[in-house]
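Tokens for chain A. Residues wanted.
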């Protein structure tokens, strides 16, 4: 957050980290509301899964099948755009300037990608949902949410 000499807080850019879950969509809607109040810009961010974590795609990536890896990543981007585009439309209808960012995960942590992006791009607040897409992913997203709040350079808004 930007602070000027009079100690007033200025929020110019809010990032919402999304995974397509109901919780992340609620976080996006809350972020849009805050952007409207603060006249801030919204960054709608999604980090693609690390394909080298296993499975058929992971094995193909390991052995250099770039065509299949590229097709997988393209499909994941299209899937993410299906739930990110309505958020961006909602922001625009609310008078909020926004942009979508879909980042590839090349073996680093999702938390590291989000926190580095937020620092590099002068984000003043990160909004994130507290629950993911499934029971198993809830554990992962919960730990990601916790880690973002621990490692972020700026305040983090947790939305249930």
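Reply:
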């Amino acid at each position: 957050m930007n602070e000027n000499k009079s100690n007033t807080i200025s929020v110019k850019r809010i990032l919402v980290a999304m995974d397509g879950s109901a919780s992340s969509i609620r976080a996006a809607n809350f972020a849009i509301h805050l952007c409207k109040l603060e006249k801030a810009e919204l960054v709608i961010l999604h980090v693609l899964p690390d394909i080298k974590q296993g499975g058929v795609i992971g094995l193909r990536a390991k052995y250099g099948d770039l065509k299949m890896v590229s097709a997988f990543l393209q499909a994941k981007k299209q899937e993410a755009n299906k739930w990110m585009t309505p958020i961006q439309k909602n922001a625009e209808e609310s008078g909020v300037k926004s942009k979508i960012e879909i980042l590839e995960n090349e073996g680093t942590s999702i938390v590291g990608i989000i926190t580095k992006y937020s620092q590099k791009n002068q984000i003043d607040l990160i909004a994130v949902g507290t629950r993911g897409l499934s029971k198993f992913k809830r554990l992962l997203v919960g730990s990601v949410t916790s880690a973002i709040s621990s490692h972020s350079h700026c305040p983090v808004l947790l939305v249930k």
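Confidence is low (pLDDT under 50) at residues 134-141. The longest strand covers residues 41-47.
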